[in-house]
Amino acid sequence: MSPSRRILLAAPRGFCAGVDRAIQIVESAIEKYGPPVYVRHEIVHNRFVVNRLEDMGAVFVDELTEVPDGAPVIFSAHGVPKSVPEEAQARELFYLDATCPLVSKVHVEAERHFAQGLQIILIGHEGHPEVIGTMGQLPGGAVRLIETVADAEAFEPQDPAKLAYITQTTLSVDDTAEIVATLQKRFPSIEMPHKEDICYATTNRQEAVKEIAHRCDALLVIGAPNSSNSMRLVELGTREGCPYSALVQRASDLDWGALENAKIVGITAGASAPEILVDEVIAAFRGKGVVEVEEIRVRDETIEFKLPRVLTTDDAPDGRKGTGS
């Protein structure tokens, strides 16, 4: 192992405003209402975060049927189908919606397109919680999922003059651009989002990786394998010419054999990964020898999202309905 190496630390990295808000909602709910507080699905895609919240008193469940009557329940940052809050209301559960506001924006777009009689294309990954939530805002069959350029080329609309597209917020900007270009070429009148659906944090983290990847012998993305935005960063590192691009969840995942000859190592973190895990990985490198760390910042992030009002006031849940604002 080399006695010294250089680390290029991408910035922005790690928590975005939507993830930070979702975690704060769980923490604040536990503090206000006491444990246990139930959370439908992982609040964000990071095992370290989930384990810490479990230690505080959060109970993660797959479905609302696992939530006892009268217990508070929180919906994850990825968003949920409309059927979920409807079920909670029918059971008179008190719920908090931690859906990222940028995901909620896509939901509103989908409903607006549907009201205008447009067939909706969703560019995204099948099975991802955000995609399930977005498609679940409308009746079955109203939204058509497209994952690849080939899908876009094969798609046959009901009416080529009545089309709109929306996108999953955590995709690769470059991959989405290819699919959008294909759709626009085939259907010139297709309605597009008023503002790019891919969230600012996803875009910023991808720009930061582009800035460092070609300079690195290895790129490490700290994140979870079920985190879409983290996996896109790994793919982007390879595409930008980095010889070794890998996802790691913790410092214990580092493949020192693969990193043996890496003199310059790039490090970033997906939008659900806390900074403590970045520090842990850097500390592991320092344990192997002298390390110089240089942060490469492409943009500052100042966006913050407010917590639901019920968590910031003395109001108590009325036991009949929930709130996401």
- What's the pLDDT, averaged over the residues? 93
The termini sit apart by: 52 Å
Largest sheet, if any?
Answer: 5 strands, parallel
Specify the helix fraction band.
25-40%
Structural class: alpha/beta
The count of β-strands is 12
Q: Element order, helices and strands?
A: EHEHEEHEHEHEHEHHEHEHEHEH
Task: Output the strand order for the largest sheet.
Answer: 10-9-11-1-12
Helical stretch count?
12
How does the overall form come out from the CA principal axes? flat
pLDDT under 50 segments (min length 5)?
318-322
The quaternary organization reads as single chain
- CATH architecture annotation name of the largest domain: 3-Layer(aba) Sandwich
